[in-house]
Amino acid sequence: MRKVVFPFTFLAVAAIAALSLTGPAAAGPLPQMGLSGIEPNTLVSQSGGALSIYGSGFTTTTVARLVGLGLLNTTYINSEALKAVVPPGVPPGTYDLEVSENGTSATLPAALSIVSATPTPGPTPYPTAEPTTVPGRPILTIRNYSVEPARVVVGREFVVTVEIYNNGSRAGENTMVTFPGGTFLPVGDTGHLLWQLHINHTAVVTQRMRAPSGLSSGSYDLQVNLSANDWEGNHYDYPQTVAVEVAGVGHGRPQLVIEGAQTSPTVLGPGDAFSLTLRLANRGSRTATQVVAGAASSDLAVPAEGSNVVAIERIGLEQVVTATLPLVLGEVTQAGRLSLDIALEYSDYQGGSYTARQSVGLEASTALADRPQLVVAGYHTTPGELAPGDMLTLTLEVHNVGGGEAERLTLTLGGEAGDGLGPFAPLGSSNVKFVPRLAAGDTVEVAQQLVVDGGADAGAYSLPVTLAFDDDRGTRHTDAQLISLLVRHRPHFEIGFYRTVPTTTVGVPFDLPVEVTNIGRTLVNVSTLELSSAQLDISDGTLYLGPLDGGTSGSLEATAVAQEGGTAEVLVTIHYLDNFEQPQVVTKTLTIDVETPVEVSAETEEETEEQEKGFWGKVWRVIRGLLGLGS
Q1: Would you kindly state where each structural domain of the chain is located, as residue ranges?
Q2: Euclidean distance between CA atoms 525 and 543, whole angstroms
Q3: What is the pLDDT of residues 9-54, one digit of tens each?
Q4: In contact, 386 and 379? CB cutoff 8 Å
Q5: Environment class of residue 212 by beta-carbon count within 10 Å: exposed (0-12), middle (13-18) or buried (19+)?
Q6: Vertex 50 angle, CA 43 and 110, to 5°
Q7: How many helices (H) and strands (E) does the chain have?
Q8: Whole-prediction pTM
Q9: Which residues, in sequence order, are CB contacts of 20 under 8 Å at separation 6+?
Q10: What is the CATH number of domain 256-364?
Q11: Does domain 34-115 have CATH number 3.40.50.300?
């Protein structure tokens, strides 16, 4: 049978209770690292097992080890308990247990016995009544509490109820709950003796208190001291606090309400400056002091001047005060009723401080009936096709599609900073153009001289255009748009006859030896070479060449027959694909001289026949035969 020892007499308990009632309990000593015992104290070598280690001063970095074996896998439970795992295969013997952290350690000699196998049960010996020390301690905490009424009024009494919970590993003996006072004054007995509080058990204590007069509004801590002994006579203190909400002098608070709000103008557009007038009413039970009101939605409205808040010295009970905020509506894209948050901060004369957030409505319109809206309706370049090194004129057509006049228009090529010009550089002026005004429905042409960088790659370049202008209310608007300019590498060909073409005769076939040479530095994707003429009949006048690298050439030898004398023109056409895979042509005209054959008349033929008669006629026939003119 277990022998229970009560280390204190009833008189001692009464003395302790009396001492607790007269003043706060002294704080316990700081925990020191120590070992009081382990469970179990014997393990089998083949299987190992888990150890429960008891003591004091443990933290999450405390580790355990078996002296002579090494560190164990240690788990922190609380400041008085650890769990460690002994692996299987530890040699049999008796081991000292050591716990340590940061150079501090404690050792329990001969704490654990490791045996080779579970011994065979023998005859049961006669039990010896020897007390066994169970390590641990009671741990008291407040698990729940309540205050009645929930908001305490100064000068009045209230009741606080606390639920005490024993979360320790031993029962609490002579457990006491004491309300020492301080900010709040206890009414009646301040100490409550609970006697024994078992492990995982709770007890409820009720105490009447009073809030002193003159206390300002706010939340205050109520001191609750918990204490208990264990069955060995060790004493433990657990000071706790609970929060109590107090309503200060006047038994109330100021309460500001936005009872009305209006804007001027009534309907707002994106970027419009406007004034917001608020009607603030104090519907509370105290005067509001140091009132500050301001717009809290920075993405919807920003200050037009100064800050976005207005300060009011005081607003009395049932008093209504108007405050005006100068604001600018953001670049909203949604029309209709928009919600603007208003932040309110204020105090009272008793030192209480209050914050609130309320919303007011703004009527927004994105219609263009009375506002300017500018777009780049068209643009073109002169020349139309651009190549590296070209100088050009870019003409932009800016159209006002809105319902209001745009004033002080600035058009900036390359964006506001001009860093988006790419390979294009302004020529003759800056990249910013100014237009004094542009009426609704009107269009203005803005021209800018540019030059293309000589080392520019072929491609499509996006050129940002920033339009900044004022409306008739003086609000500045900014819009960014994009245009695209195409840069092509222009091919360079040398086109001609690769050998001399002599003067030809009508009706006599002759050769047209044409050669095309790429004298540029880049490859040109040539498809076909084609010859055509209005004065010549050309056969075999088309040839596929294929891509030509810089410095390479392709040739075509066609056959032609002239239909008439004079100068014949040969049109050489080169078909190729540009940098955008679009078909393009390069042409050049070559010329050839064509002679008309000599015609023999009838009179000449009669004279010839007469000459043939006689001696000289015979000679003449010989000469004609030698000349190939007949004999």
Answers
A1: 34-115, 140-247, 256-364, 374-487, 493-595
A2: 14
A3: 333 333 333 334 333 333 444 467 888 888 888 888 888 888 889 8
A4: no
A5: exposed
A6: 50
A7: 3, 44
A8: 0.44
A9: 176, 178, 191, 225, 227
A10: 2.60.40.10
A11: no
